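During the reporting period, we have paired protein sequences with C-alpha cells. One record among many follows, to show the layout:
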Amino acid sequence: MNSVQGLLAASVISIQNSCFIYPACQNCFSRLVLHSRRFNCLKCGCTGEAKDASYRYRLSLKIADTSDLFDITVFGSCLDPFFGVTAENLQRYIQDFNQLSGETNTESTARALVQAVETCFIGKRFIFGV
C-alpha cells in the first residue's frame, strides 16, 4: 500500500475537501465513528473512549501536470511538515482555541483553516508519489 509506483510533478489546482483531519482507527486507519464518549471503527470493530481517538491528515487535491488533471488524496504524517504539527496536535490546538476563545461557531475556525491550506497549496508545484 505504501509502495510508490511512480512520481508525478504537478501543480495544485484546488482543494477538494474542507475537513483535513479525521479521527482514525489505529489498527486500520479507517474513519472512526465518534459518539458522545466512545468511538467505534466500522471496518475492524475497534472501540475505545472518544478522548483517546487519534487523528490523521487527509487532503484531497485536484492537481494538473502539463497535459492532464488528476484527483489525488494525500494521507498521514507526510503532511506534518506542511502543517507544522501532527494531525493529532492540530486537532488539539483547534479544540483548545475554540474552548479558550469561547468560540461557539466552529465553522469560522474551519473556514480560516481552509483558507490557510488553500494559500499554502493552490498554485504550488509538488512531486507526488503515486
The chain has three helices and eight strands.
